[in-house]
Design brief:
Length: 299
């Protein structure tokens, strides 16, 4: 029995399983739609696909360094309870190891990465069935070179990965400094590493806002321009890591703190990049209605 693309689409519509899984199910069952549905249910693919439509905004952020490769990633679940379970914690650590070893370019490449008897996508589907919730590998960053410092805050609510270069200094000697800066990133939420990295469109928008505010106060144009320049510098001190006051000693900036450590250790240190993930930021949150849940259970 043969099948067409319309059959694949119809099977996908009825089961919610992925397109390739539906095609495989029809191939394995000679195009028989009923047997293909049973095949998908037996493999757990239909159940996993149904869960995939549910909101997953909880989960964990995890950061680690393995064999000199740094990684930070976020995996989401539907509930905080599931995120704290042993299978979930083991899974995010497993994914960190796969990322460090394979260094995929993006999420699509990660899902296609071979692991065990299948791919990461297969492992994710299997974990959905084990845990019983929709799970999503949301994002990751990998730093394969130089020195990486990983920091996890509040049990996985925030993860930070800092990358730096140290010349004339042993890598172990900069770990404490790196952790201090990673903690700063977690707490102070910088957007950019340095003011030179700031997005020009964002900066111009901020300038326009400041200018409108100052002119509204009745200041003349030439005075307003000077005040705007001062406010932009203040803005950079808030959102650029190197310009931020160092939280443990606010009489110096982070850049000055790095320079002081480098001088003390007799070498040079350069911060290259950082990534900060906070669990669920920007995601739609699940809103449970207890009355509705009870009603559904009693129907």
């Amino acid at each position: 029995m043969t099948f067409t693309a319309k059959d694949v689409a119809a099977l996908r519509e009825s089961t919610g399983a992925g397109m390739m899984d539906c095609k495989r199910a029809l191939q394995e069952n000679g195009g028989d739609m009923e047997k293909a549905v049973f095949y998908l249910r037996e493999k757990g693919l239909a159940a996993a696909a149904k869960k995939a439509s549910r909101i997953a905004a909880e989960g964990l952020v995890y950061a680690d360094v393995q064999n000199g490769v740094g990684v930070v990633l976020e995996i989401n679940s539907e509930t905080d309870f599931a995120a704290k379970s042993d299978p979930f914690v083991a899974f995010i650590r497993e994914m960190a190891g796969i990322l460090c070893q394979n260094k995929p370019a993006d999420l699509a490449a990660l899902l296609e990465t071979k692991t065990g008897g299948g791919t990461v996508a297969d492992a994710l589907r299997e974990k959905v069935l084990v845990i019983g919730e929709n799970l999503q590998i949301r994002r990751f960053a990998v730093y394969p070179e130089n020195i990486s410092i990983a920091y996890v805050h509040m049990g996985g609510r925030i993860g930070v990965l800092l990358n730096l270069t140290a010349e004339g200094i042993d890598a172990g000697a900069v770990q404490e400094m790196g952790k201090n800066i990673a903690m700063q990133i977690a707490a102070m939420r910088p957007i950019w590493l340095d003011s030179a990295d700031a997005d020009s469109e964002t900066v111009e928008r901020e300038k326009a806002v400041f200018m409108a505010q100052i002119l509204e106060e009745g200041k003349p144009q030439h005075v307003a321009e000077k005040i705007v320049a001062g406010r932009i510098n203040k803005y950079f001190q808030e959102v650029c890591l190197l310009q931020q006051p160092y939280v443990k000693e606010n009489k110096m900036t982070v850049a000055e703190y790095v320079q002081s450590v480098a001088k003390e250790l007799g070498g040079t240190i350069k911060l290259n990049a950082f990534t900060r993930f906070e669990k669920g930021e920007g995601l739609e949150k699940r809103e449970d209605n207890f009355a509705d849940e009870v009603s559904k259970m009693t129907q």
